[in-house]
Description:
Layout: H1 2-17, H2 20-45, H3 56-62, H4 65-79, H5 84-89, H6 92-96, H7 102-121, H8 125-134, H9 139-165, H10 170-189, H11 198-206, H12 208-215, H13 222-248
Helix pairs in contact: 1-7, 2-4, 3-9, 4-7, 4-9, 4-10, 7-9, 7-13, 9-10, 9-12, 9-13, 10-11
Amino acid sequence: VVSGALAIFRRxxxxxxxxxxxxxxxxxxxxxxxxxxxxxxxxxxxxTSASIDSGPVxxxxxxxIFLLVSLLLVCPALTMxxxxxxxxxxxxxxxxxxxxxxxxxxxxxxxxxxxxxxxxWLPTLLYILILRNxxxxxxxxxxxxxxxxxxxxAGYLAVGTLMSAMTKSxxxxxxxxxxxxxxxxILGIGEYVFDAGMLRDLSAHVSVLSQMDExxxxxxxxxxxxxxxxxxxxxxxxxxxxxxxxxxx
Length: 249
């Protein structure tokens, strides 16, 4: 499984970065994040007083709608071609006859998209370095914030991988992934709508807004990480079963 997944990982990563898709997404993503960070810094600098809840790092990761919009667009775009393109072009048959298990295929493709996702976030560390040169930075908050971004993104990418395996159309895979992610986002908003009770607790548990707000303050709740892990494992498990069915179908 490991050797097969590694071969698929290298193949998929190369396929992503030799095409304009990853580079275009990287440029657009960094432009959006740069504008968001700049506007937040300008706003915070104009405040007469600041607290742990209103610093630029906390505002950027925990209160910026641009971050959530970026995830809503980037994750479906990264995963839409993973299986859909190969099924449409017919190259999936050659892949399935290679000496690699369905688990290796799914893991290799998923990890390639996750590595690309992480690579897109790495340049944003420059924002933190800029802040460090102008003031004090709480590295615990920085670490928990990036952990939140990684956890949420990893779950969304797993969902996108499953959606790509369910269709031969990249556009359909993109739309389906967006709908699922948006559905989770709307469900999370329920914590501000529902009365106290089971529905409100469920909404608060899956709320990406609450998760990023907490982690942007340095609070790491194990329950959040368990949910993120579940959002990775379950879609990938179903994807493996789908890919396995192609061999026998």
